[in-house]
Amino acid sequence: MGRRTRAGKIAKAAQQRTDRWAVSLWMLFAFLIMLPVSGVVLTAMERFGTDVGSVVEAAGTASVTSCEHHVLGTPYTCTAEVTWESDSVLAEPPPTQETVYSMSLLSGEVAVQEFRCSYRRHHCRIYTTGFPHRSGATFIPPVIVMLVLMITGLYGTRRLAKRIVGKPAEPTV
């Protein structure tokens, strides 16, 4: 290997500054853009149905007291008093206050189901009977959105870093 010239050292220092700027801008982009967008995309997926299992743990009737409309996530969450159907003949369980998730505004009495969770939780969400289930392929559009954002972010932050650092100064002889 030969000696490094002064111009080579200046070019290497400028490249290192560009790399540092690009990494810093990428981290800022990921924190300010990608993190919120991924949260919005993941919560918006619930509008197309739930991804909990198809095994019903319990079924019952809910007497709805109030409902709230949401822009993201499940369109409606309703507070209701749920009476679960009992398998035993001895005693009927007392009604419990629960949150019921629905695709439409609820009122009066509605049939509800609690599904077996695919992940370990003490209490799974309660949905109205007929609440749609997402197919396994619904994860593909969010993955594509995130990949496009990541590639665009990498390209954009690299270009911006080059503009910030500028061209290396020519050495004076």
Summarize this structure as a short list of keywords or feature phrases.
173 residues, 24% strand, OB fold (Dihydrolipoamide Acetyltransferase, E2P), 5-stranded mixed beta barrel, 2 helices, 2 domains, alpha+beta
Topology record:
Layout: H1 6-44, E1 56-69, E2 76-84, E3 96-102, E4 108-115, E5 126-128, H2 140-165
Structural account:
This protein is α+β, with helices and mostly antiparallel strands and about 170 residues long. It has two domains: about 10-45 and about 140-165; about 50-135, OB fold (Dihydrolipoamide Acetyltransferase, E2P), CATH 2.40.50. About 40% of the residues lie in helices and about 25% in strands. The protein has two helices and five strands, in the order H-E-E-E-E-E-H. Strands 1-2-3-5-4 form a five-stranded mixed barrel. Strand 1 and strand 2 form a beta hairpin. Helix 1 (about 5-45) runs antiparallel to helix 2.
**Average of the residue pLDDT scores:** 81
Range of helix content: 25-40%
Number of domains: 2
Q: Mind telling me the C-alpha Rg?
A: 27 Å
Q: How would you name the oligomeric state of the polypeptide chains in this document?
A: single chain
Which strands sit side by side, in order, in the main sheet? 1-2-3-5-4
For the record, the CATH class of the largest domain is Mainly Beta
End-to-end gap: 24 Å
Helical segment tally?
A: 2
CATH topology of the largest domain: OB fold (Dihydrolipoamide Acetyltransferase, E2P)
CATH architecture label name of the largest domain: Beta Barrel
**Which ranges are low-confidence, i.e. pLDDT below 50, for 5 or more consecutive residues?**
none
Decide which structural class fits the backbone.
Answer: alpha+beta
The biggest beta sheet, please?
Answer: 5 strands, mixed, barrel
Q: What's the helix-strand series?
A: HEEEEEH
Number of strands: 5
What is the percentage of strand-forming residues?
15-25%
What is the general shape?
Answer: rod-shaped
